[in-house]
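Structure in, sequence out. Go:
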């Protein structure tokens, strides 16, 4: 699809100097938000992108229609218990947002309508909603901008009326104390957007009377809070990539002051779960894959704790959930999840696991401390999301909910999922999960390879109803579980960060090469996709191996790594030093320079690219992908499609509403199918 009027951004050279090393940034001027020149250039790129997609509009519409035909327009989500009540979120035909109902005696009563709250808003996101312990009040946190600055409002459930209380610019998290009139919320630093302050608000009082409960002054640390399932404690969790510290509050006494659980120690990551008999701690102290400790009272040091479960070299402990009579432990061995049920009385351990080559297994909402039923989620790349109710006494389980695929032609039996192991440059075995439709000639099939590989985040192998639009057209879809995530345990993460970050990129390249070489796809038809830190991955692999990719989809990409990490005024920069390294250290400066996508753009041919972002993105500022696009246009020597799509009403998570979400997916698929000349 040939196009005229390719956008061209003005060059205004700015010299950036560090350690006597000079970089020339011709597009540094783009970080002036709302300037007329910036908005003009964004519009030019958006118009150019829109013109390209105008030829693909029938494909976009067809795929979006396919997605909508597979998903019930009146889809009912999984019911869940909360505060002794049964709730269910539902989509209703013609509505962009969910409605939440209470269920009783086979009758549904409307509890909360997101559509009403989203009226006349260009963006809406319900970040959190929390009931007071007595169920009389509902606190909601809502984002009306897309920049993750949430407004907290409080509703009186009996009348449905909202109190005058209105708290602006929270991070979206809410907790109630047990007095039913006090809420806790978190504020972000207005400059860096780091979550660093915990406040207490008494309903019916002016915000000026809110009390600062805790402030985290170390810029590497952020905070979040949680309430114990027993209801006795509120935990303030301070964390960085390498270190954590927990403080506790008496949930029955809102005026209580936070007390340190275990004092922070560099490199020590831990979390705390309260049980009636004491505290259970997941800790990495001399335990790279974590261990579980027990303390009857708040310990002064880790040496006062007993070992409940030792660490293992091959099993990673993801987390725990305690019930009155049971401990539930989430584990991962060789990348596969399993759930261990430990009865405190009998100590006869039971496991929940599955035989598929690859799948996802996790916990659903289990807020009832006294419950003997565990709700867990299961799905795979061929099996729609399911929730099971598991009787922890008998081991009997029943299907509680399964996502319905409306297409009568759909059957899980029509698709194959498997896991293979690709060889990395240094000999490491890279797990790759893939799915495709049975009967496809793999050696001639196009491949979409997805990756992330940062922050220890593991991309789960889950089902996608939208993905069927690719699979049914003969595509193979794969996830490369590259280093930088924790798919294979802590060592997998440690070998993909700091001065080993390049392993993340070479793993992804090696995985693609292996899939092509071993006949799992046509090596000339490989597409790559990633977002945020996965967008960094997309930028790096495009520079390092541009010949390998027929197309690249880069969403909200973190691509101007070095400049961003040197600017402490940019949101989230200093807190990220423990992931990427601090470029004020000369060794890290030059290492980041080696792979920063923006700094490594060259005069050469690049693959086709579709780059998306949100103007209000608070995590990866819009100007990173904008600068990247401008520089790429000046350097790339090919005529492959190169598109930039900036949603002016969205943030890091894309546009709001069901139709926007589905259209964004449809455009990605249409871009790929257009490259394949498969526009039917």
């Amino acid at each position: 699809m040939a196009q005229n009027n390719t956008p061209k951004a003005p060059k205004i050279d700015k010299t950036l100097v560090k350690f006597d090393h000079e970089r020339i940034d011709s597009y540094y001027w783009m970080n002036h938000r709302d300037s007329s020149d910036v908005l003009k250039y964004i519009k030019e790129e958006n118009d150019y992108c829109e013109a390209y997609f105008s030829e693909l509009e029938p494909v976009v519409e067809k795929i979006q229609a396919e997605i909508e035909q597979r998903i019930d327009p009146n889809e009912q989500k999984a019911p869940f218990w909360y505060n002794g009540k049964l709730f269910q979120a539902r989509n209703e035909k013609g509505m962009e947002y969910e409605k939440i109902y209470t269920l009783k005696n086979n009758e549904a009563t409307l509890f909360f309508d997101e559509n009403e709250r989203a009226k006349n808003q260009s963006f809406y996101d319900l970040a959190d909603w929390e009931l007071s312990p007595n169920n009389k009040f509902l606190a909601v946190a809502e984002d009306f901008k897309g920049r993750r600055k949430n407004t907290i409002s409080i509703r009186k459930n009996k009348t449905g009326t909202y109190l005058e209380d209105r708290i602006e610019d929270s991070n979206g998290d809410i907790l109630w104390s047990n007095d039913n009139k006090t809420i806790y919320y978190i504020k972000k630093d207005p400059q860096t957007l780091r979550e660093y302050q915990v406040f207490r608000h008494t309903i019916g009082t002016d915000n000026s009377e809110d009390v600062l409960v805790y402030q985290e002054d170390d810029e590497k640390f952020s905070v979040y809070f949680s309430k114990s399932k027993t209801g006795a404690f509120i935990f303030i969790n301070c964390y960085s990539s390498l270190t954590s510290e927990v403080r506790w509050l008496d949930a029955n006494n809102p005026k209580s002051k936070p007390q340190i659980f275990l004092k922070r120690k560099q490199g020590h990551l831990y979390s705390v779960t309260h049980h009636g008999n004491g505290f259970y701690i997941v800790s990495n102290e001399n335990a790279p894959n974590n261990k579980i400790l027990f303390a009857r009272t708040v310990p002064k040091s880790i040496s006062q704790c007993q070992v409940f479960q030792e660490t293992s070299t091959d099993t990673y402990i993801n987390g725990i959930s305690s019930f009155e009579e049971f401990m539930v432990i989430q584990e991962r061995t060789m990348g596969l999840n399993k759930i261990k049920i430990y009865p405190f009385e009998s100590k006869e351990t039971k496991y929940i696991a599955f035989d598929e080559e690859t799948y996802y297994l996790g916990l659903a909402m289990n807020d009832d401390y006294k419950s003997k039923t565990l709700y867990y989620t299961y799905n795979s790349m061929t099996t729609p999301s399911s929730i099971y109710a598991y009787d922890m006494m008998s081991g009997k389980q029943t299907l509680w909910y399964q996502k319905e695929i409306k297409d009568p032609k759909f059957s899980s039996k029509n698709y194959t999922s498997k896991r293979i192991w690709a060889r990395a440059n240094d000999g490491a075995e890279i797990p790759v999960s893939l799915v495709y439709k049975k009967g496809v000639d793999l050696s001639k099939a196009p491949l979409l390879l997805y990756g992330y590989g940062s922050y220890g985040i593991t991309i789960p192998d889950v089902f996608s109803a939208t993905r069927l639009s690719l699979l049914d057209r003969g595509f193979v879809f794969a996830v490369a579980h590259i280093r930088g995530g924790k798919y294979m345990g802590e060592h997998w993460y440690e070998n993909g960060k700091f001065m080993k970050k390049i392993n993340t990129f070479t793993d992804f390249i090696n995985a693609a090469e292996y899939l092509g070489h071993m006949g799992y796809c046509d090596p000339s038809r490989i597409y790559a996709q990633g977002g945020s830190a996965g967008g960094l991955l997309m930028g790096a692999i495009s520079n390092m191996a541009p010949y390998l990719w027929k197309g690249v989809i880069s969403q909200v990409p973190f691509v101007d790594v070095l400049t961003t990490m040197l600017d402490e005024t940019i949101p989230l920069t200093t807190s990220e030093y423990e992931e990427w390294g601090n470029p004020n250290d000369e060794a890290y400066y030059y290492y980041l320079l080696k792979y920063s996508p923006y700094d490594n753009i060259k005069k050469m041919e690049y693959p086709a690219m579709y780059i998306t972002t949100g103007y209000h993105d608070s995590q990866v500022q819009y100007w990173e992908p904008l600068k990247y696009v401008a520089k790429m246009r000046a350097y790339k020597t090919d005529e492959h499609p190169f598109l930039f799509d900036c949603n002016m009403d969205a943030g890091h998570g894309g546009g709001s509403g069901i139709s926007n979400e589905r259209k964004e997916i449809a455009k990605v698929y249409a871009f790929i199918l257009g490259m394949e000349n498969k526009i039917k």
